[in-house]
Amino acid sequence: MLKAIAIWLVAINLVTYLMYAWDKHRAKKGQRRISERELLLWALAGGSPAAFFAMRKFRHKTQKTAFRLQYWAIVLLQVGLIVWLIKRYG
């Protein structure tokens, strides 16, 4: 089970990072963008570490307060879930 979770987290973080990079690339070219909702869903699915690094590296979505608040709400939810799982099963 732990191996499957680890594989999922590596994969989802790779995809999340690439999605943020792709969206920034498209923004610079004035092309159709990936929705903020989709980007946040990638973070929610486990890609929040990659989203954090991508936002910093590409300076992407860092000025959008609503987006940042939603992102940090996702992180808090995930941390809470991890703490609960550790207390319950750890």
What secondary-structure arrangement, pairings included, does this model have?
Elements: H1 2-29, H2 36-58, H3 65-89
Helix pairs in contact: 1-2, 2-3
Catalogue the unreliable spans: none
> Residue share in helices?
over 70%
Question: Gap between N and C termini, in Å?
Answer: 14 Å
Q: Output the structural class.
A: mainly alpha
**Main pleated sheet:** none
Strand content: under 5%
Number of domains: 1
Count of helical segments? 3
| Cα radius of gyration in angstroms | 14 Å
Rounded mean pLDDT score:
95
Number of strands: 0
Instruction: Say what oligomer this is.
Output: single chain
Q: What is the 3D form?
A: globular
The run of helices and strands is HHH
Describe this protein's structure.
This protein has 90 residues and is an all-alpha fold. The chain has one domain (2-89). It has three helices and no strands. The longest helix is centred in the first third of the chain and has 28 residues, at 2-29. The protein is globular and about 50 Å long. 19% of the residues are buried.
Comma- or semicolon-separated keywords:
single chain; 90 residues; mainly alpha; 3 helices
Q: Brief description of this entry?
A:
The protein is built from three helices and no strands.
